[in-house]
Design a protein that fits this description.
This protein has 217 residues and is an alpha/beta fold. It has helices at residues 10-17, 29-35, 39-49, 63-74, 88-99, 112-120, 130-135, 140-154, 168-177, 186-191, 196-212, and strands at residues 2-6, 24-26, 54-57, 80-85, 104-109, 125-128, 159-162, 181-184. Bound molecules: erythose-4-phosphate.
């Protein structure tokens, strides 16, 4: 499963990139607002750090303006992936861009039928929001399961990008289902490294090693 960081925090992206485990980055207008930076500049900087897809979201609601915005965004770097909302205009834009070979991430997906439409529109990625689904009393992981089944039934190439990931169990369940990608805030990705027994074991080994009086170097 690929790991994308859901952030525009440059230091956090550099930090994760250094692990060799980062496969891409996702942003949205709220994340850009939080960064306090100019949209095109921050996307350009992220694209220089990360080789994989960097999602940059259009904000227009109509197809014609989405295409104009996408034209600006995709010129930033070859690894920009245009993010469009799951609306009729968003999917028209998805179809047009993907037909031209541009990567497209269809966002704000909350049903398996929406995911089916996005795949038919040639989406590179579909982004079902599991956290927001759970927040509203639905089962986010059941949605991922349903999309996996449908995409496998028809051999769609669209990758399932599990979004709105809030905690390590979301990552675990997504991997068990066979999602292609998950995107999470850096704090959630860092939490995947942690286990209390790893810390405890390390402390015990360090204490015993100290007692040997030896040094490897
Ligand atoms: C990713 O592409 C989404 O924009 C993001 O995961 C949304 O997460 P949130 O529901 O925590 O805002």
């Amino acid at each position: 499963m690929k790991f994308f960081a859901d952030t525009a925090d440059i230091d956090a992206i550099r930090d994760l990139e250094a692990t060799g485990l980062l496969d891409g980055v996702t942003t949205n207008p709220s994340i850009i607002h939080k960064s306090g930076r100019k949209f095109t500049e921050v996307i350009a900087e992220i694209c220089k750090i990360v080789d994989g897809p960097v999602s940059a979201e259009v904000v227009a609601l109509d197809h014609a303006t989405m295409m104009k915005e996408a034209e600006v965004l995709r010129k930033i770097a070859d690894n920009v992936c245009i993010k469009v909302p799951l609306t009729i205009d968003g999917l028209k834009t998805c179809k047009a861009l993907s037909s031209e070979g541009t990567q497209v991430n269809v966002t704000l997906c909350f049903s398996a039928n929406q995911a089916l439409l996005a795949a038919k529109a040639g989406a590179t990625f579909i982004s079902p929001f599991v956290g927001r689904h759970d927040d509203n009393g639905f089962d986010g992981m059941q949605l991922i399961d349903d999309i996996r089944l449908i995409y496998d039934n028809y051999q769609f190439d669209t990758e399932i990008l599990v979004a709105s990931v809030r905690h390590p169990v979301h990552v675990l369940e997504a991997a068990k289902i066979g999602a292609d990608v998950m995107t999470a805030p850096p704090s959630v990705i860092h939490s995947l490294f942690n286990h209390v027994l790893t810390d405890k074991g390390l402390a015990a080994f360090a204490a015993d090693w100290e007692k040997t009086g030896q040094s490897i170097l």
